[in-house]
Task: structure prediction
Amino acid sequence: MAETRRTKVLIVGSGPAGYTAGVYAARAMLEPILVQGMEPGGQLTTTTEVENWPGHTEIQGPELMVNMEAHAKAMGCEVITDIITAIDFEKRPFTARSDSGTVYVADAIILATGARAKWLGLPSEEKFKGFGVSACATCDGFFYRGQEIVVIGGGNTAVEEALFLTNFASKVTLVHRRDALRSEKILQDRLFKNPKVEILWDHQLDEVYGTDNPLGVEGVKVKHVKTGAVTDIPAKGVFIAIGHAPANELVRDVLETHMGGYVVTRPDSTETSIPGIFAAGDLTDHKYRQAVTSAGMGCMAALEAERWLAEQGDDVEIAAE
Result:
């Protein structure tokens, strides 16, 4: 028979938002359970140096997430390695079912499942992830000061990343598979006027190449989509900027979403369209997508969950096990 676990607050996801929610919910004596999900630690586990986390001039992404997990546990948050596969939002207490078979029953739920960068799926792209291949210019652009960089994409994300990277790079080559950008015109105007930017039209990334020991990018090969001709571009960094996708599988058809699937929350709040369900971090954030903003929202979610539960009084019955 499947085990049933009961908690006042269930936290789904284990990035900066989830772990911070765990710290605050535990300090509020809510005895939260945090279920880590498919990728414990989230996107930061695929990042090397992190230099924009307050209090650390430099820390490895995986190390930061290990520290945050340990902090949540030390405060009293129970962290479980499992994957939530379905949630019943129809009635309180809410019921969440997991991959292990365990059923979690909770008076309130904090969703912190994050978002995933979209990738091209090339073997060489995978090989150099975190070692020259990135999907976050604001996270990693600083490491390429004075270097040549390639950005792949043609929408707002790509143009914004390319413009940001000109603050560090000696040259930014934007590779786009079409002959016109899909980004907003104002962004295009800024891009076209920037002397550090070169645009390579009608090309797509074919291969990333570099050194094996240590792992590091040396350049890319791009292919003309019409002629098939291959061009070699020297580069120390490659930024895949074809967008992000919120990890909204659990709530896609239940909660209100916008901007391509990001969960809608009330202004200045983490409250969703269902009372008792809160959302924090990259699941809701199509704009900033930073670890520190995610952590801030995790704090907000825990405080709001605590306040909401207090307002409910004792009218929430424990479901039969």
Q: What stands out?
A: The CA atoms of residues 124 and 317 lie 53 Å apart. Residues 315-321 have pLDDT under 50 and may be disordered.
